[in-house]
Amino acid sequence: MFRKINTSNRFLAFSLAIAMISMGSCVTDENEVPKEEEELEDDRWVTLVGAFMGDAPGDGNGGTNIYAISYEDAIDPDKEFNVFDDGTPVKSNRTARLQVSEDGGTLFNIAYSGENGGEYAKFDIRGGSNYVQEDVTVNISQYAGTSPRWSKLYNGDKNGIAVNVANIVANNAEDATADFQYYRGTATVLDLDLQETLISNYKTYELPLSAEEELAGHTIFRLDAPVLNQAGDKLLIGTWMRKYDPATGLTESDFDRLGTKTVVVDYPSLENPTIITSTQADGDCSGYRSNVNQLADDGYIYQATTRNSNGSHILRIGSNNEYDNTYALSLDVALGLTDTYVDAWKYVSNGIGYALIRHGEEDQGYVVRMDLKQKTASIVQGVPNDPDVRFNQFQGFLVSGDDLLLPISPLGQDGNIYILHSQTNEVSIGAKIINKPGNHFIGVF
């Protein structure tokens, strides 16, 4: 319904509009941290994601379904949704690695493995199972393989970064008479223009460690979890380390780990790769299906480690693109547990983040609230405490202001979307989500 505007007020309305636009242009910074911190509109689409079982319950290898609901419905406990019966599949041989635009209206996907592995496509989200794919796609498999790791940068949905390490061999692989010096692979860093659907840049290079580390058989096995620093001029990429026995060429599972390492490259040129090392932890910082490197509103990049010798840690990297080796949050110490393992985590606001963890020999998942300023952590009450809760393939959180949306259900059972109020440590229950035997929920975007 339209209403009439008094002609005499048109000039005033126009002047106010121009002033508001001018004010916005003065304060907008394309590198400001990140837009998810804003409170979301009630009619914003929220994409609920579920993973089908393949051969075993909870393996998530049977494919991925998605379903779009409004934010208002997502936080309403009187609503219920069935992503497995009513949703639409995402093209991917295994669990898809999804990204959604900041306004919730566009879905980005790179198919993971299979005949379409490496194919990037984007979809217009129109509600329910209605995701309309754009005509143009691009395949990055010839550069980053058919199972690329990638993340969307928080720069206004302009770019995504895909990374890969391939062909790890010894320097003397083709000449047994030469002295062994190192195992290295070829790293690829690829910049994907999400709006124009094209590869805007890519670089390949080796990533050498110190001579001493390489002689012992250490190498960077995998890259993942790229994040752009606050200045927008450096890309930081998480690593997964591996060690080979130089005498046999076999991988070692029990070895003295090196300090946690991150690769830093210039952006947008992707040149000048360097490696920085933490003295506070020795775990990997590549994550699994979600980005464990988070740019916070204080300008630091906070990083979760896994496979640490004494449980997962939260580390931080400063504006100088170096580890702050005066800082570390040990979840083992903070929670009084042993061998904590961060499956996924998300920064919310004002120093508060939430981690999805398991610990010891257990597979059960727990939600942990972390105060990164005080370096404290506690297990969240008010969410399901069930041995069949799993977060091992979790991908997506949704932040609205100080709130975090999180779908939780025991494996194969119905659950709910939970709203975690970061500043008060309170929990609200949102929409009911219907499950199927062997399936689980892996995110909301």
TrEMBL record:
First and last residue of the signal peptide: 1-19
Keywords of the record: Signal
The name this protein goes by in its record: DUF4374 domain-containing protein
Source organism of the structure: Cyclobacterium amurskyense
Phylogenetic lineage: Bacteria, Pseudomonadati, Bacteroidota, Cytophagia, Cytophagales
